[in-house]
Amino acid sequence: MDTHLFRDIVVVLVLSVAVLFLFTRLRLPGIVGFLVAGTLLGPYGPGLISDTARVEELAEIGVVLLLFTIGLEFSLAELVRLRKSVLLGGSLQCLLTIGAGYWAGLWLGLLPLEAIFLGFLLSLSSTAIVMRLLQQRYELDTPHGRTSLGILIFQDLAVVPMMLLTPFLAERAEGAPVVLPAGLGVLAALLLLLVVALWLIPRLLDQVVRTRSRELFLLLVVTLCAGIAWLTSAAGLSLALGAFLAGLITSGSPYGRQALGDILPFREVFTSFFFISVGMLLDLHFLLAHAGTILLLAVGVVLVKAFLAGGSALLLGLPLRLAVLVGITLSQVGEFSFVLSRSGAGHGLVAGEIGQFFLAVSILTMAFTPWLIAAAPRLAAALGSLPLPPRLLRGWYPLPPPPAPPLAQHLVLVGFGVNGRNVARAARAVDIPYHIIEMNPDTVRREQARGEIISYGDATSLPVLEGAGLDQAHALVVAIADPVATRRIVELARRLRPDLYIIARTRLLEEVADLHKLGADEVIPEEYETALEIFARVLHHYLLPPEEIRRAVAEIRADAYQMLRSPARPPLNLCDLRAAFPEVRVRVERLTPDSPLATLTLAEADLRRQRGVTVLAVRREQETFPNPSPDFQLQPGDLLVLLEGGGPGGQA
Q1: Is residue 589 a contact partner of residue 652, using CB atoms and an 8 Å limit?
Q2: Tens digits of per-residue pLDDT, 418-430?
Q3: Residue ranges of domains in the chain, CATH in brackets
Q4: Which of 124, 135, 400, 489 could form a disulfide with 334 if both were Cys (CB 3.0 to 4.6 A apart)?
């Protein structure tokens, strides 16, 4: 084994943990922490990494997984819902910023094609940072949050054609004639890949999911990502483009959310290597030598991007206040700019001092973002108080209301077995909306055809829970038989929603305490609930009043079933049944045609003296006679409800 590589990986991980912990405490974006860690590890720093090329190879995996998850998260339904922000707002923002970058590049002395590429780099904003900050501030579903999200979706999609154009931008005039044939060949290969993928992959996923093997499903997802990325690379395209296509194809299947949940942990690890490898390229001596210039450039980039993004929002018809919020939200340089810059560096489009300035300025704009977004409402309010035209303040078009979530204050139900079906049936009976998460694809397909709101996925995965609308839910019921998965789901849901009401089912009482510690409000252990039901029926048979039975059951539950677990527990404070009703029991007998009682009245039968029983009721066909009088005439076939009080028994 290459111990040098292993040592480098350990150094990267240790420093990443330390820097990320510090940045988290300082409320700075984790991406900036990885970039700083890279500068400390790289050749321009102390030089703790001996083989930077190997770390960059791991970073390539991070790029592939990053594009794959972007493809998985892309939704045609979301695109349709945000079509105005995506298509119009996103294209305006990108084109305006590319134009500004082009003129800035020419002013800096770049060649025209290099200036266009600089515009590409500056046009992209940080989806990871913006989305996380908007979620933390509960602003993702606000008008400016939805507009920012639409523009970010367009930017993420625009990365793909930008990466396709990068090698062509590096071509000189003499290479131009081969660009069109090469592009046509690439397009043909792409179409062939899409046809095969759209026909083969959904069927393959369906068959693998039927095995219900999580390991096999995860292995297939990774294979699809790596395999399609390799095929596109062999066709002359980039690995990243192939990974994006693989994610896009997988997201079209019913298993996209599950695939996203499975791949996210791998993405987080490998993308950390990517941002660290980018940070390794930053020359600390260059940064210190040009600190003033870099700071001015960073401020300039933020101002220009905020102005152009805000202007795009104004052209969409948003009021000035919201346009300012959108502009500031999108004013930083994004993580995909680093992906694109690495591709451009390989083709000679970004080199020397320009590359160093770009890295340093990008890192600073990312670091500014949390404070800028926090200050944005105050700046927007100040601008809104100026004597500006009312049309500008109000916006050109009426703002559409925020879309209502598919469900709100609903019940998220994990598992659709016997227990899950019964809970769903009960919720339906009282008109409580619910969303079911189920791992059996046949069940999901069948119930979807019946109109149930049910999705496939493993609820131990955060994207799967989010896809069921947990952020809007009123309660969560975990009705599966897997104790490990139940603990993970409860812990994850409690972390995501501290105010959520959580009920968990378990087979064993030993799980109750752990599930309560992890955040469950109620834990229902099957083995003891069965015993409680039997216990309640025994008490009912002993003629205990219903309120006493309910109190007894509630007391046992409130004590975490300790009475059932430990014989040494003191008895419940119930009435003494033997003292109140010595040897009393109720039984039912039917009068046969040859019974001597069949034609007598109750007074004539004298059952209390003759047999020590009292007739409580008589059931005749479909009619019941409670507490019959002494002159009640008995008939063959009557059912007699008898109360025994200790006298001699016998047949009626």
Answers
A1: yes
A2: 888 888 888 888 7
A3: 3-170+185-384 (1.20.1530.20), 411-520 (3.40.50.720), 528-580 (no CATH), 585-644 (3.30.70.1450)
A4: 124
